[in-house]
Design goal:
Distance between the termini: 38 Å
Oligomer: single chain
Strand content: 25-35%
Radius of gyration: 15 Å
Number of domains: 1
Largest sheet: 6 strands, antiparallel
CATH superfamily: 7,8-Dihydro-6-hydroxymethylpterin-pyrophosphokinase HPPK
CATH topology: Alpha-Beta Plaits
Shape: globular
Order of helices and strands: EHEEEHEEEHEEHE
CATH architecture: 2-Layer Sandwich
Structural class: alpha+beta
Helix content: 25-40%
Bound molecules: 7-(2-hydroxyethyl)-8-mercaptoguanine
CATH class: Alpha Beta
Length: 162
Amino acid sequence: NDTFAQVYIGLGSNLDDPVAQLDAAIGWLQSEAHVSLLVVSGYYATAPIGGPPDQPDFVNAVAEISTRLTPESLLAALQQIEARQQRERKERWGPRTLDLDILLYGEERISLPNLTIPHPRMKERAFVLVPLADLVPDDLELDGQPLAYWLKQVADQAITAL
Ligand SMILES: Nc1nc2nc(S)n(CCO)c2c(=O)[nH]1
């Protein structure tokens, strides 16, 4: 695979000092072989969406990378970083030290049992769309609508820039 893909990664944490968790994950991404970290959005404090209601607020960000890794290899590398930061998969959608999601992988559409790209829930998540808007133009299209359209749809979700 000799072509480089422009990839957007969602980062999230709501356990064990989330800002430090995101900083550490950015550090691992920077030192990952075959991954070039291009730019990182601002950090945002966000109310938990989905999952148990009584969990702590999250801190979220989006990173843009360039990589020759295939989507599956990139997923494996991200899961290694999560594991290094003690990601116990206790309850689905429960609190976690670190969550790394592949949001977009170039223009590709991928649907594998363990990997769907574009991320199937990104359009419903202010904690993804708002940091993503730091990195891409507002007219970036998702499912035929500009990012600005999807941002309006999630305007009720609590999110504050840190
Ligand atoms: N605000 C917020 N809510 C979330 N719910 C889930 S699941 N996650 C994990 C990401 O899939 C988050 C998150 O990162 N931020």
